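Customer escalation, tier 2.

The customer says the design service returned an amino acid string that "doesn't look like it belongs to this structure." They asked us to rerun it and document both sides in this ticket. The original structure tokens are below, unchanged.
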């Protein structure tokens, strides 16, 4: 990794100029639609330029005048950081000035920032301080089709804000055909109101849909003849087959999580030494949420001469992010997030800069048996953090809150019971003061926030801070080298058998 220079220009040479992107010819119609409609749904395939160009169109059209700013949310922090970096270079400014980003534990913005990229969760946090998001003239929810928990909640909050701030422009960007659902969600009440007043359906100024064509290249899709018994080993072997038999081009491999990715990176590093000395070398790189921003940026840098990048990633590379040079893509049926046709179909369309091949390590019949769409996170996740945040926003009646997809009553009741047991809610399901309010201010799980706030009473605040930091890290605190993996495993097992005492040092 020493060969990479993060100080150099981020925009790879393969990127087309902004004027050649498909969105360029829609500039005037987009600006007119956004000006005349409170809600705009933009449907465009990956690579059409909606994430990078639309915010710049809006800034040049004057939507950042009078101290206002444009917020663009992303479901993942790697998308927020990389897209912001790209836009800053196109804009011609230092990252953090006119163009910046804000993710958990990292705020690269300033008073001069006009275009701000941030995660859905961070914008929800801002709403705790500024419930009407008054500093923004436009809020764009990018990749809304991914339906993350924070995205669904943010859509509901924006709908409430829209009623109080009709001048706020809301843009929902999606790569799927859910456009009508998004539009109906925001405009149903406006249409009903217009119909009551005039006797006919109006509401045409409430929202509109614009479709953009993508910049796609052909992809050859290959399936296995029979299911793999050890899909990780088969994935590694497929990488070597591609490396030895296929022309040059980088490889993107989707796996389920950090453990599998670390194993794959180690296996490629060890086995590549057995290749012919004159063969092109392989550079395995990990990409997952637990990595720092600088570590994630390595995958976007061009590989050294006679070197093929092999990127092992979780689904954070699934949307918004374009990694140039990827020719070969491989995914397995065992991926935790492959629960519908929408995921593999999206991966097959990742050829944004050149033709490629997609190796699916499952049978074609397995693929066709997948449901059309996956269950949204809000219908299968712990809702305690969400409800705590909604309570802090002054939304007490959770049952009447406008979720894009209503969560099961059982999950809501379970979350309310947990928050009440922790003391965050009183007998009337109201946020308690000061405990409930302080718990909401901490961007961590409610049980962990309660433990932190109570730790000083038991004189274990230092220890609890350490535990909370380790729990919230998102990655491993253990520095693992290949020759020490076994020894560290034994040491961890020994640590887990400790029966008494506290962790006071790391």
């Amino acid at each position: 990794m020493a060969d990479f220079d993060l100080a150099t220009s981020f925009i790879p040479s393969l990127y087309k100029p902004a004027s050649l992107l498909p969105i360029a010819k829609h500039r005037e119609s987009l600006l007119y639609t956004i000006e005349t409609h409170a809600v705009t749904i933009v449907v465009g395939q990956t690579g059409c330029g909606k994430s990078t160009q639309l915010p710049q169109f809006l800034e040049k059209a004057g939507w950042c005048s009078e101290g206002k700013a444009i917020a663009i949310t992303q479901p993942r922090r790697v998308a927020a950081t990389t897209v912001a970096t790209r836009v800053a270079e196109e804009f011609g400014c230092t990252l953090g000035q006119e163009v910046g980003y804000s993710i958990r534990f990292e705020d690269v913005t300033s008073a001069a920032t006009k275009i701000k990229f941030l995660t859905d969760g961070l914008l929800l946090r801002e709403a705790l301080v500024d419930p009407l998001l008054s500093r923004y003239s436009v809020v764009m929810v990018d990749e809304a089709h991914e339906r993350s928990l924070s995205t669904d909640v943010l859509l509901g909050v924006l709908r409430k804000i829209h009623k109080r701030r009709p001048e706020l422009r809301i843009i929902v960007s999606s790569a799927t055909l859910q456009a009508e659902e998004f539009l109906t969600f925001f405009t149903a009440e406006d249409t009903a109101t217009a119909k009551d007043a005039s006797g006919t359906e109006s509401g045409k100024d409430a929202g509109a849909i614009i479709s953009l064509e993508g910049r796609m290249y052909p992809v050859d899709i290959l399936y296995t003849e029979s299911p793999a018994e050890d899909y990780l080993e088969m994935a590694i072997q497929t990488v070597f087959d591609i490396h030895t038999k296929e022309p040059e081009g980088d490889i993107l491999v989707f796996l389920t999580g950090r453990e599998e990715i670390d194993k794959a990176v180690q296996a490629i590093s060890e086995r590549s030494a057995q290749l012919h000395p004159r063969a092109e070398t392989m550079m395995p790189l990990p990409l997952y949420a637990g990595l720092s921003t600088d570590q994630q940026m390595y995958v976007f840098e061009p590989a050294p001469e006679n070197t093929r990048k092999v990127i092992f990633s979780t689904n954070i590379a699934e949307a918004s992010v374009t990694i140039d040079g990827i020719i070969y893509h491989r995914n397995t049926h065992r991926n935790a997030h492959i629960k519908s046709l929408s995921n593999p179909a999206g991966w097959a369309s990742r050829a944004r800069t050149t033709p490629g091949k997609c190796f699916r390590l499952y049978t074609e019949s397995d693929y066709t048996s997948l449901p059309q769409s996956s269950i949204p996170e809000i219908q299968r996740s712990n809702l305690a953090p969400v409800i705590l945040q909604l309570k802090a926003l002054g939304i007490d009646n959770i049952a009447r809150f406008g979720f894009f997809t209503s969560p099961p009553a059982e999950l809501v009741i379970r979350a309310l019971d947990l928050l009440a047991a922790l003391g965050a809610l009183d007998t009337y399901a109201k946020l308690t003061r000061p405990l409930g309010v302080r718990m909401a201010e901490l961007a961590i799980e409610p049980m962990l926030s309660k433990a932190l706030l109570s730790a000083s009473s038991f004189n274990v605040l230092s220890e609890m801070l350490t535990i909370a930091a380790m729990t919230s890290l998102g990655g491993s605190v253990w520095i693992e080298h290949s020759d020490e993996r076994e020894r560290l495993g034994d040491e961890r097992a020994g640590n887990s058998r400790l029966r008494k005492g506290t962790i006071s040092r790391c």
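Tier 2 assessment: The sequence is consistent with the input. The two ends are 28 Å apart (CA to CA). The longest helix spans residues 179-198. Sent an explanation to the customer and offered a walkthrough call.
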